[in-house]
Amino acid sequence: MTGTDIASPTAVGTGSGSALLDVRGLRKTYQTSGRTVEAVRDLTFGIAAGELACIVGPSGAGKTTLLKCVAGLLTPSGGEVVLEGRPVLRPPENMAVVFQEYGRSLFPWLSVAQNIELPLKQKKVPKRRRGELVAEALESVGLADAAGAYPWQLSGGMQQRVAIARAIAYEPAVLIMDEPFAAVDAQTRAELEDLTRELWRRLRMTVLFVTHDIEEAVYLGQRVLVLSAAPTVVMDDTVIDLPAEREQLATRSDPRFAELRAHVYSQVQRAKTYHRADRARPAAGPGEGGDG
Ligand SMILES: Nc1ncnc2c1ncn2[C@@H]1O[C@H](COP(=O)(O)OP(=O)(O)OP(=O)(O)O)[C@@H](O)[C@H]1O
């Protein structure tokens, strides 16, 4: 399943039946005005309960397509996504998504607290419990004082904290994050990365985190999956064997961090041309096990 053949980073098996989230032979082809775009060719991997897995890949690799299928927002052309043993056919109740575009994901006419409370109302959480969850979530992201503010009164980084608070208040089993920090400044980004890891460890959620940023993937993840250029397959799947306690300066200057970053970087470079080079060869290797 993996293109990892160097001695250092550890390759892991994927697509196991015991995973909380299983992506099995996923395919997605878009049909638009007579044009056919094969976005995802064959994706098979599994995410274990409580795991924090990062996904990287070249632009246009199909990361968003994958996440939309996982979140039940898009119907696959083939294969399936299975969550807790059940096929995902619509947005699952126990999943929350944080998108990059925080500006568009929060309702400007609702206060911060009301934004966080809205999905809880839809989930029919009793009023008293809703209040507790909103307060706890705001406290967790360091925004206890901003409950009554409106999103447009907050900085970009604060708005993204609200989006994270809304996701965790929902108490999802799986948290999907689609390039959530791409639009914030470097300092805020580092803080939000640490917040993500802290919340993940404390709340024991399963997190699937998509990013363009290889360093971010290695810093955050327990595991990094590299997708090829579209039509997409999983090219590489590497365990990030850094200590669980991560710290921006110390972790990033760890020689092991540099090795892992170099490995993932080389895989992403390979991913960019994978299909061009692969066309001449029969379909095999990374991604095998799907239905092609
Ligand atoms: N609605 C659509 N109709 C037709 N083609 C689409 C549609 N959405 C995505 N695609 C195509 O599918 C491929 C994968 O797109 P996708 O947005 O999933 O990639 P991505 O890895 O998320 O990209 P980026 O990193 O640039 O955000 C691209 O070739 C894209 O043009």
TrEMBL record:
Q: Does the keyword Hydrolase apply?
A: no
Q: Keywords in UniProt for this one?
A: ATP-binding, Nucleotide-binding, Transport
> From which domain of life does this come?
Bacteria
The family database entries (SMART domains) matched by this protein are listed as: AAA
* Residues that span the membrane, as ranges: none
What molecular functions are annotated in GO for this chain? Answer: ATP binding; ATP hydrolysis activity
Q: Residue limits of the ABC transporter domain?
A: 21-254
Kindly provide the name given to this protein in its UniProt entry.
Answer: NitT/TauT family transport system ATP-binding protein
